[in-house]
Write a sequence for this structure.
């Protein structure tokens, strides 16, 4: 390249990554064909693929290409990746609280990546910031956290774990001695403690660890026979801990536990939080969106009394992963925890409040994806009525599964579905009389049933026709079905029970 070329800004041939419009159309057409085939055929694929460790890479290779490769080859390899993937969108995928993505949500992600907005602040993404703030308001009103008199604020996160971590930092800064925010130090000889039930998700003790408090600072309160926090015990534990020189600062209630879907008594816990001057956080990552089901709404009475609530549109709003959300009432508290004045590169020069808005003042991330678009597009495409209906159907299907299990002599219900999770176990004919009469020693029978049901789960998972995970319910191994899937029908539930029976027979 001569000097003239350099000064005129001409690049070396082939160094630009732009592609021609014809190539772009070809890429778009092939990719949308793949996506359409995928969505149209997801129910007919194995839930878990016939794969083994290293098979995917064995098929597509690991060579780092020096030169670009043909599109056909790349799409072929993408198909190999799809074939070797577990299909969360399959109607008999009951493994985890993970909803299938919808086509509008998936395409919204494509648009967001095309725009590639870095959603740090209004200045970085004016439109995206306004959409995210709109989505936050929508989510808060959907779950009953905000109304005409109660406004809510918040931000989207990668998921529930990040939302919980963010909430606990805000809570800690709000309730710690005033100098903590400035110095980052607190008097660690006074242990600051968090309260949660024995059913709490692991992201809470993890967050306590990350915050430097330590996992042991999460004081575990036993749950009642419906797996909900025992509130008199919470009060007793707080009273004792205060007497022993601890500094309780936060109580975390579950708005749908990961094990059984139990919703803690939110109103009662809010009263205790008020009495003991605690930050009241609700982990609704899995369950808060169940408030969209009219029949479940009363379980969430008191949600509007929380200082903060986590919820995951990627768990139960059928939005692609990463779609978590933290809502909080007091914007100033969140700002006090996260705002940072010392860096020129984040100075905001805009004059109006809207234009000066920056997400970095409310959470740990600076660079952020335009996550709101997929939530916004999903809600606008389907409308709240249709989404609510699907969530209600998920709950009704879990109830149906519970009924089928209770009616069958060879199954035992271990936790009645509160929302859309059902925990049960298979009991072979030989063990049924013993279980009923208590003859033969309960512990010995439970050990046998634990082993049998663990094997059943493994066989079912690898068989590819249905996928269940497990939970430990009062010491017993349970098959756990989480139904957050708009494709599941009653026939899928019936078939899954048959698949479990077949797996059990095969193990005899
Ligand atoms: C109750 C609850 N809280 C938090 C989480 C963590 O959410 P995420 O996986 O989005 O980080 C989960 C995940 O299953 C959950 O069920």
């Amino acid at each position: 390249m001569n000097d003239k070329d350099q000064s005129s800004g001409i690049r070396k041939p082939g160094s630009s990554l732009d592609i021609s419009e014809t190539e772009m159309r070809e890429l778009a057409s092939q990719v949308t064909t793949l996506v359409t085939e995928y969505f149209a055929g997801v129910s007919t694929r194995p839930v878990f693929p016939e794969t083994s460790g290293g098979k995917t890479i064995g098929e597509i290779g690991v060579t780092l290409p020096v030169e670009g490769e043909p599109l056909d080859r790349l799409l072929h390899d993408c198909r190999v990746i799809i074939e070797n993937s577990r299909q969360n969108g399959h109607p008999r995928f009951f493994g985890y609280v993970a909803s299938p993505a919808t086509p509008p949500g998936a395409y919204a992600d494509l648009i967001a990546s095309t725009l590639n907005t870095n959603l740090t602040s209004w200045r970085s993404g004016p439109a995206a910031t306004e959409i995210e703030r709109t989505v936050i308001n929508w989510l808060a009103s959907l779950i009953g956290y905000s109304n005409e008199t109660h406004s809510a604020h918040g931000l989207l996160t990668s998921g529930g774990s990040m939302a919980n971590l963010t909430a606990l930092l805000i809570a800690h800064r709000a309730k710690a001695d005033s100098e903590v925010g400035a110095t980052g130090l607190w008097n660690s000889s006074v242990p600051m403690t968090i309260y949660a039930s024995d059913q709490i998700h692991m992201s809470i003790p993890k967050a306590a660890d990350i915050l430097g408090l330590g996992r042991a600072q999460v004081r575990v309160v036993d749950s009642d026979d419906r797996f909900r926090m025992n509130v008199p015990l919470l009060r007793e534990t707080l009273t004792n801990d205060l007497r022993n020189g601890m500094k309780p600062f936060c109580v975390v209630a579950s708005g749908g536990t990961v094990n059984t879907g139990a919703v803690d008594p939110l109103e009662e816990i809010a009263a205790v939080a008020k009495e003991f001057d605690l930050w009241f956080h609700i982990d609704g990552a899995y369950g808060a969106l169940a408030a969209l089901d009219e029949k479940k709404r009363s379980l969430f009475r008191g949600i509007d009394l929380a200082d903060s609530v986590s919820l995951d549109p990627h768990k139960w709003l059928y939005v692609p992963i990463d779609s978590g959300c933290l809502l909080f009432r007091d914007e100033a508290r969140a700002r006090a925890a996260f705002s940072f004045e010392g860096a020129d590169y984040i100075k905001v020069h805009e004059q109006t409040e809207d234009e000066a808005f920056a997400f970095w003042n409310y959470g740990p991330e600076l660079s952020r994806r335009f996550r709101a678009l997929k939530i916004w597009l999903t809600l606008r495409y389907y409308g709240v009525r249709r989404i609510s209906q699907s969530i209600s159907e998920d709950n009704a299907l879990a109830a149906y599964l519970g009924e089928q299990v209770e009616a069958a002599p060879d199954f035992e219900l271990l936790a009645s579905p509160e929302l859309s999770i059902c925990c049960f176990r298979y009991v072979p004919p030989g063990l049924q009389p013993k279980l009923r009469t208590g003859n033969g020693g309960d512990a010995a029978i439970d050990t046998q049933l634990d082993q049998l049901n663990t094997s059943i789960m493994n066989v079912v998972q690898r068989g590819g026709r249905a996928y269940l995970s497990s939970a430990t319910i009062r010491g017993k191994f349970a098959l756990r079905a989480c139904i957050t899937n708009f494709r599941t029908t009653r026939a899928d539930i019936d078939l899954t029970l048959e698949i479990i029976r077949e797996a059990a027979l095969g193990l005899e």
Remarks:
- The mean pLDDT is 93.
- The pocket of pyridoxal-5'-phosphate is lined by residues 97, 159-161, 201, 203, 254, 258, 283, 285-286, 312, 324 (CB under 6 Å).
- The longest strand covers residues 247-254.
- The radius of gyration is 26 Å.
